[in-house]
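2024-03-11 09:14:02 INFO worker-7 job=invfold-0412 stage=load source=structure_tokens
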């Protein structure tokens, strides 16, 4: 008798549309593998739906808040439904970027210098010398991230007010700016965009991302042709191995499990850890499945590994 898997997708975060694509791809793969699958577009009544469906395990394909930040993991723990990816604590800490940075620093990982500011503080003016990066403290997929340069003539209060400028409409239609309450402001690290994936406590590989224009924001991540993925990343062998070990260290520092992807900036000498993603995208444009494929693990096999390792608890 095949296992019954509930694929959790959609939800109501800023990343709902991407989650729907990830979840549909996962559900197709699971059906092809012979699993019984129920797709659940997560809404506030998700506990009632899960109680009615009674799956053997849940594949958590949610992205962003309420799905990736420990909330859904906590619900699944209470309902005793094994689930994919990281547990409650690792998920919640990874989503809180300032807190994650403290833990990364304690583990000896190099991160950009930065500070936490409130919306009111950010509205008063530049909290760091330009250029700097400002991002909501608890969003994923580069939602609401902006690089503030000396050439940028928009006042900072546009970023925090929820208003849109002509420039923002052009660059991030319908998504910019995000009205958060807490922001992480960091020094801008010039250099290359590098990402590395870890699966079940083993590094999988490394990709370099080259946006066709601007920086690797939300639109570049999920628009076909907007960014080049160089997999494997064209790095010297020692640097390639170094960044894989840094990704593994980040994975272990938070107590993650399953699949994670860590994002870095590389200035030609040092790698700077930006964040860790505990539920990487599973869309046709997603980086982690691409890295896994280069390591010899195709999409269906990756999905199977994740769902067969579904469990309760942190490890």
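2024-03-11 09:14:09 INFO worker-7 stage=emit residues=315
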């Amino acid at each position: 008798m095949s296992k019954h898997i509930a694929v959790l997708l959609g939800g109501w975060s800023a990343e709902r549309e991407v989650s729907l694509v990830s979840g549909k791809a996962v559900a197709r793969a699971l059906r092809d593998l012979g699993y019984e699958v129920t797709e659940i577009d997560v809404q506030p009544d998700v506990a009632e739906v899960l109680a009615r469906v009674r799956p053997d395990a849940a594949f958590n394909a949610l992205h962003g808040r309420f799905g990736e930040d420990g909330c859904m993991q906590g619900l699944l723990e209470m309902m005793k439904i094994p689930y994919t990816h990281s547990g409650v604590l690792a998920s919640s800490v990874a989503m809180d970027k300032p807190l994650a940075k403290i833990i990364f620093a304690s583990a000896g990982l190099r991160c950009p210098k930065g500070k936490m500011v409130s919306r009111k503080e950010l509205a008063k003016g530049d909290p760091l010398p330009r250029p700097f990066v400002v991002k909501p403290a608890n969003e994923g997929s580069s939602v609401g991230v902006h690089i503030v340069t000396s050439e940028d003539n928009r006042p900072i209060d546009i970023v925090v007010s929820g208003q849109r400028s002509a420039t923002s409409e052009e660059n991030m239609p319908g998504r910019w700016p995000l009205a958060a309450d807490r922001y992480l402001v960091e020094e801008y690290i010039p250099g290359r965009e590098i990402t590395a994936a870890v699966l079940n406590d083993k590094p999988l590989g490394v990709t370099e991302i080259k946006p066709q224009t601007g920086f690797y924001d939300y639109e570049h991540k999920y628009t076909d042709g907007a960014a080049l993925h160089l997999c494997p990343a064209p790095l010297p062998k020692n640097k390639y191995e170094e960044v894989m070990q840094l990704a593994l260290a980040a994975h272990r520092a938070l107590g993650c499990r399953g699949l994670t992807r860590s994002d870095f900036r590389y200035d030609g000498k040092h790698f700077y850890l930006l964040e860790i993603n505990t539920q990487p995208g599973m869309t046709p444009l997603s980086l982690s499945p691409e890295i896994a494929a280069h390591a010899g693990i195709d999409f269906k096999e990756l999905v199977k590994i994740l769902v067969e390792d579904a469990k309760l608890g942190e490890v």
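2024-03-11 09:14:09 INFO worker-7 stage=report msg="The two ends are 27 Å apart (CA to CA)."
2024-03-11 09:14:10 INFO worker-7 job finished
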